[in-house]
Design a protein that fits this description.
By secondary structure, this protein is an alpha+beta fold. The chain has one helix at residues 40-64; strands spanning 6-10, 28-30, 37-39, 83-87.
């Protein structure tokens, strides 16, 4: 299941997920090492949340040093994700 810059992988094992070549949202993808898996729809949703968290963190860290922008940042608890985008 290739994406623009990589493919979905297991966050724990750092290996690509296995699933159908032409998946539907309800198709299941699993890690061949540890067995962690979920539907394509849920895998995509979790990876999207992770990417949004990373982007927000970068934006806030860049604005924090700005003398033109005042940023009040609340501590956001780090979430553990099951799925990641593997570089490719």
């Amino acid at each position: 299941m290739p994406k623009a810059d990589g493919q979905f992988g297991c966050a724990r094992c750092k290996v690509p997920l296995e699933g159908p070549a032409k998946p539907k949202p309800s198709d299941r993808f699993t890690c061949p090492v540890c067995g962690t898996g979920d539907s394509l729809k849920n895998v995509e949703g979790e990876v999207l949340q992770q990417m949004q968290e990373q982007v927000a963190s970068k934006v806030f860290s860049g604005a924090r040093d700005s003398k033109y922008v005042k940023v009040e940042r609340k501590r956001i608890p780090k979430r553990l994700y099951r799925f990641i985008i593997l570089p490719g």
